[in-house]
Design goal:
Chain A is an alpha+beta fold and 400 residues long. Among the domains of chain A are: 161 residues, no CATH class; 40 residues. Helices cover 54% and strands 18% of the residues of chain A. Chain A contains eleven helices and twelve strands. In chain B, strands 6-7-8-3-9-10 form a six-stranded mixed beta sheet, sandwiched between helices. In chain B, strands 2-1-4-5 form a four-stranded antiparallel beta sheet, covered by helices on one side. By secondary structure, chain B is of the alpha/beta class. In chain B, a hairpin with a 2-residue loop joins β4 and β5. The chains are: A alpha+beta (400), B alpha/beta (226). Magnesium ion (MG) binds next to α1 of chain B.
């Protein structure tokens, strides 16, 4: 006869409530692990969709995902010419937040060369960008329909296709436009600003006595051309031929000064170590705290349920029950509570994780490790109850 | 051979100034199938005597022999498995029925059998048989909460008898029952114990409950006076 189960069955209301509570706690622990894995996956999502071997960024920076990086677009041609490089393509990144239907609407805009790479890797609906201007492919997570228009900068962009789960390292869904459009959105000044700038150039040139009016006119055109140029990108990505030596290519690009060639591996390190390390530690700390709370709760429940059973345990000892009968009852109850709570927590997350605002990635290893930890916690927690139970004297069954 | 043999048993609680001599130099013998009552006022040492015989309370001095096994001689003998002796040779009935609240009547009897290595089906058969003999055939699946005091005490009797013990020890088994129910419980206990050839030692302070007993020991201040 299994005393643990009989006891639970008799006090089922109490057991169910505490187990559900514990299950919720374990669910939170599972989801936190999932959020951490999701952070990693999100941080690397763009990296994985671009599949570049080298990211060329502004010198002394850690690239566009970590800080601001600006390099001229035409460097792409020089990179293409480096031996070992098979293709190179400029990319522009920016986070956009606009009002849409009265709510803030945030996404990560990627501009790519329609003839290069780094664009959407899968098209779930509609089509890829075909026109050089005013077309957009949006991630499914943006929940925007094909044919809808969004105003960005000075123009309206029409959604022509839907892509999969690409997000920024901050978890915002990605949208793609052509590089030229992205540059316009990022760098193009509005008409008032342009007029202001030109006036300022005029005033400055007028101050230079030695310039003839004709010289001043050409100079003004040139200066305006430079200041109004939008041919800047945030990174140029390159792929190498199979036998190419990564270090050699990096060496060569470094020699030009002004640029830093980051390998894919370094980029992963920058994204995971630098950007999500703190989040990871924070989440790890919360998980530990929650597990400690679970352990305390289980210990308390087992201890009080042992106290409630002092008379039962004394009676069992009196009629000659072996210690293993008593230890078994307490340990099994603790384990049963842990296992059922785990199943509740896991089931809950399994049913809801897709509706979480951030991506939850459930990894088998994490789930198994947590299960192991729960079992250990239950076993250790039951020791307080078992210790108490073993100290109970059979004589305590007498009287009252 | 006696079922219970007690020789010059003394139990002193505590030490020094606070020492209480609960039982002093008690001697008694009970044969198998014999019904014996221990009668005495509150605090006279009845429970102490019963628990010393019941291998729950270590005697300070003196000898205790249960079913031919010497269990105490100036304290417990070394190397005894007291729990095993308790479950094989002794049956206990208490003032409060001490049934396990989360087990049904039948399971309360079965647990005593299962810890004594009976199979589940053997235990079930024996429990059903005993409870039916105690007129509880219709209460097998009731939890103790839903049993009357008399019914609960009869389940406790069934549990005490389950392993056919050589000795049954009962401490005020009828104290929580009215006279009618108390007498009824006593009659059943006597009937079944005698049928089993168990020696029965009943502690009580109620003279009315000891009708038909073979012998009565009167205890005063820790001494058996008659
Ligand atoms: N664990 C203990 N520690 C110290 N003294 C005790 C202990 N148990 C009993 N005593 C004392 O021993 C004496 C005998 O107690 P015992 O319980 O045997 O009496 P009793 O005859 O069963 O009384 P009652 O009819 O009230 O149950 C009492 O004076 C009691 O205070
Ligand atoms: Mg007493």
């Amino acid at each position: 006869m299994n005393l643990a189960i009989r006891d639970i069955r008799y006090h089922r209301g109490r057991f169910i409530l505490t187990t559900i509570g514990l299950g919720l706690l374990i669910g939170v622990v599972i989801s936190m692990g999932g959020i951490y894995r999701g952070l990693s996956a999100d941080a690397l999502a763009i990296l994985e969709s671009v599949k570049a071997d080298i990211w060329v960024v502004q010198q002394d920076t850690n690239g566009p995902f970590a800080e601001s990086s600006r390099i001229p677009e035409d460097i792409t041609y020089r990179i293409k010419a480096v031996p070992g490089v098979t293709e190179a393509s400029p990319l522009s990144f920016q986070t956009i937040q606009v009002e849409r239907k009265g709510k803030p609407f945030r996404f990560f805009l990627i501009g790519y060369d329609l003839n290069g790479f780094g664009g959407p890797t899968e098209i779930l609906g509609g089509r890829n960008i075909r026109q050089k201007h005013y077309e957009m492919v949006a991630a499914k997570a943006m929940k925007i329909a094909i044919g809808e228009k969004i105003r960005l900068g000075l123009h309206d962009y029409t959604v022509v296709g839907i892509t999969g789960k690409v997000v920024s390292s901050g978890g915002d869904p990605a949208a793609y436009v052509s590089l030229a459009d992205a540059q316009d959105i990022q760098f193009k000044k509005d008409n008032d600003a342009i007029r202001n700038d030109r006036a300022r150039i005029d005033a400055n040139l007028a101050g230079i006595q030695s310039l003839s009016p004709v010289q001043a006119k050409y100079l003004k055109q040139n200066i305006a051309g430079i200041t109004e140029s939008t041919h800047t990108v945030n990174a140029v990505v390159a792929r190498l031929s199979p036998g190419a030596n990564l270090l050699e290519v990096q060496e060569r690009i470094s020699r030009w000064n002004h640029f830093r060639p980051i390998s894919a591996e370094e980029q992963i390190r920058i994204l995971t170590k630098g950007m999500i390390e703190k989040a990871r530690m924070q989440i790890g700390l919360f998980r530990v705290i929650l597990l400690v709370i679970s352990a305390v709760i289980i210990s308390l429940i087992i201890y009080t349920s042992t106290i409630d059973k002092i008379k039962v345990i004394a009676t069992l000892k009196l009629i000659g029950a072996q210690n293993r009968v008593i230890i078994g009852m307490i340990l099994q109850q603790s384990l049963l509570m842990g296992v059922i709570a785990y199943v509740i927590g896991y089931g809950l997350i399994l049913l809801t994780y897709e509706k979480f605002p951030r991506r939850i990635v459930l990894e088998t290893f994490d789930l198994q490790a947590l299960f192991g930890i729960v079992i250990v916690i239950c076993t250790v927690s039951s020791f307080v109850g078992i210790r108490k139970a073993l100290k109970i004297e059979p004589g305590e069954a007498l009287g009252g | 051979m006696y079922a219970i043999e007690v020789e010059n048993l003394t139990k002193i609680y505590g030490k020094g100034d606070t020492a209480v001599t609960a039982i002093a130099d008690a001697s008694l013998q009970v044969k198998p199938g014999e019904l014996v009552a221990i009668l005495g006022p509150s605090g006279s040492g009845k429970t102490t005597l019963l628990t010393a015989i019941g291998l729950i309370n270590e005697p300070t001095r003196g000898k205790v022999v249960i079913d031919g096994v010497t269990v105490a001689d100036e304290g417990w003998l070394a190397g005894l498995d007291l729990k095993r002796l308790r479950r094989e040779k002794l049956g206990f009935i208490f003032q409060a029925h001490n049934l396990i609240p989360f087990l049904t009547a039948m399971e309360n009897v079965m647990i005593a059998l299962e810890i004594n290595h009976q199979t589940r089906s053997e235990a079930k058969d024996r429990a059903t048989e005993l409870l039916s003999a105690l007129n509880l055939g219709h209460r097998l699946n009731n939890y103790p909460m839903s049993l009357s005091g008399g019914e609960a005490q009869r389940v406790a009797i069934a549990r005490a008898l389950a392993n056919k013990p050589k000795v049954i020890l009962a401490d005020e088994p009828t104290a929580a029952l009215d006279t009618e129910n108390g007498k009824n419980v006593m009659v059943l206990l006597k009937k079944l114990a005698v049928g089993n050839h168990s020696a029965v030692l009943v502690v009580t302070h109620d003279h009315r409950m000891v009708e038909g007993f073979d012998r009565i020991f009167n205890v005063r201040d820790g001494r058996i006076v008659s």
